[in-house]
Amino acid sequence: DKTPVTLLGLGAMGTALARAWLAAGHPLTVWNRTPTRARALAADGARTAGSAAEAVAAHTLVVVCLLDDASVEDTLTGVDLTGKDLVNLTTGTPAQARTRAEWAAARGARYLDGGIMAVPPMIGVPDAGGYVLYSGAPDLFEQHRATLAVPAGTAYVGENPGHAALHDVALLSAMYGMFAGAAHAFALIRREDIDPTAFAPLLADWLTAMVPAVHLTAEQLRSGDYTKGVTSTLAMQTAGTPAFLATAEEQGVSPELLSPYFALMRRRLAEGGGEEDLTGVIDLLLRRPA
Ligand code: NDP
Hints:
Blueprint (H helix, E strand, L loop, with lengths): L4 E4 L3 H12 L4 E4 L4 H7 L4 E2 L3 H7 L2 E4 L4 H8 L8 E4 L5 H13 L3 E8 L13 E6 L1 H11 L4 E4 L6 H28 L5 H15 L2 H11 L10 H18 L7 H12 L9 H6 L5
Parallel strand pairs: 1-2, 1-4, 2-3, 4-5, 5-6, 7-8
Antiparallel strand pairs: 6-7
Helix pairs in contact: 7-8, 10-11
NADPH dihydro-nicotinamide-adenine-dinucleotide phosphate binds next to helix 1 and helix 4.
C-alpha cells in the first residue's frame, strides 16, 4: 500500500531518488531521455516506461528531476497531466517555478515545486542532514508528505510556488558569501609559515560562533529597529575596516572579495546608520520595492 511514484529524470540526483523509493518499497515507474540509465534501475525493481507520456500515465504522483526548466518543458510538452500531482525537483528560479505552476494548473495538475538541499550521496540516508524545500499546493504536500519524506527530509515553505526556489537560492547565496570570507582568510595566511590544517579548526569554530547573529538580524528586520541588541555598532566596525584592507595589502592579497561589503558599510554610515548593526546594508541591496 505504498504510494506508487513516477519519476522522470535519472541523472545523478534522479537515480539517488529512485533508489530511495525502491528501497522503501514504493512501486516506481521511471523514464529517462537516455534509456540505458533506466535499464540499470530495472534490475532493482523499477518499471521502465518507453516514453515520458507512458510514465506519467502510470501513476498520479509524478516527480520530475531534470537538468533545468527547459528540459522540463521539452519532456512534458504534449503529455496529458490531467489529474496528476506534479512535483518538480528541477532547479530553477522563483519566476520559472511560478510560471510552471500556472502551466501545470492550466493542464489540470496540482503542482509542488522543490529545491533539493542535498547532494546525491545524502539521499535516502536518514540523519545525513539533507532535505528538500517545498512550496506550492498545500493539499498535494499533505497528501504525499510521507512519500516525499522517503528520499530526504521535507520543509514546506508556503503556497507561493516560487518560494522553495527562493529559499534554495537564498541559502546557497549565504553559503557562497561564507566561502568567499573563508577564501580571503586562507589567502591571508597562505604565504606565511602557518599550517592551513591548524588554521581551519579556528576558522570553523569562529564562523560557527558568529552564525547565530542571523537571528538578531532577523529580529532587527522584523522590528525595523536596527539598533536593537547591537553589540558592535556600524561606526565601530567601519572604523576597523582600514586595518583589514591594510593587512590584505601587507600580505599581498587582493581585497576584491571584502571591498564591496566594506563599501556598503561606509555608505550606510554616511547615511547616518552609525549606531546600528550591519543590518542596514540589506536595505542598500534592495534595488526596487519587492
Ligand atoms: P545530471 O546532469 O546528472 O542529470 C540531468 C538529467 O536531465 C538527466 O536525466 C538528463 O537526461 C536529463 N536531461 C537534460 N536535458 C534534458 C532534456 N532536454 N530533455 C530531457 N531530459 C533532459 O543532473 P542531476 O541529476 O545531478 O540534477 C538534476 C536536478 O537536480 C538539477 O536541476 C540539479 O540542479 C538538481 N540538484 C542536483 C544536485 C546534485 O548535487 N547533483 C543537488 C541539488 C539539486 P540524459 O540522461 O538523457 O542526459
